[in-house]
Amino acid sequence: MAQIDYFERKLDDKRRLTIPVEVRSELVSGIVITRGFGRYLHLYPKSVWDQEVEAALSSSHNILDEKTADLNVQFRRGKTEALLDDKQGRVTIEQHLLDYAGIDREIVAVRAGQYWRLMTPD
What we know:
Blueprint: E1 6-10, E2 16-18, H1 21-24, E3 31-35, E4 41-45, H2 46-57, H3 66-76, E5 80-82, E6 90-92, H4 95-101, E7 106-112, E8 115-119
Antiparallel strand pairs: 1-7, 2-6, 3-4, 3-5, 4-8, 7-8
């Protein structure tokens, strides 16, 4: 099966994003959605979050390291965890995250290495 690196969707009335069938197997461990570096969201497989992001966010041995603290605040503020629904492969995105990214109904998802960037089509 070919790897998908990009998809566009419309959120339903309950703020649910339907994940393409070809991508769902990457997300069986669960999903973490959080703010990105800019006005967009990051969607991580839970396994990637646990193994890669958590390790990076706690890598500093200096409790007063401001750069690491800023990254922790950026990525943990508004962080949500969820599972795909088994029936239709959907995940609900919290309204505060949609507001942060300026996403109304239409959403573009682009693979960025081991995670997905969720943003407006513009």
